Amino acid sequence: MEIWVNPACSKCRTATAELDAAGIAYTVRRYLDDPPTVAELADVLDRMRLEPWDVARPAETRAAGIDLPKDAAHRDDWIAAMVAAPATIQRPIITATDGTTVIARDAETLADVVRREG
């Protein structure tokens, strides 16, 4: 299992604490220091069945100057822009051992990951 985190994020700290409490092994990726590649982010989005603008953090997206149409024609532009400014990517993103990928910001999603992996 891998979790993309920003250590300054309370949701990320909650997620890792829950995984630790459940005794679940995982690899941490500090995605601000080690941004995903375009291919990695595209793969994560495909596994979640989401578009890049669905996982973009609005304030960070504005701050990064990303002002693109939210349509299929601009999907690759969105992904490239988010890779260039990884703070725009929602967190924490957990990829379970079975390849299931979720954004674990809410307690229910996080609990589901713990149940499946625990």
UniProtKB/TrEMBL annotation:
Pfam families: ArsC
InterPro entries membership: Arsenate_reductase-like, Thioredoxin-like_sf
Top-level taxonomic group: Bacteria
Family assignment from sequence similarity: Belongs to the ArsC family.
Record protein name field: Arsenate reductase
Organism expressing this protein natively: Nocardioides marmoriginsengisoli
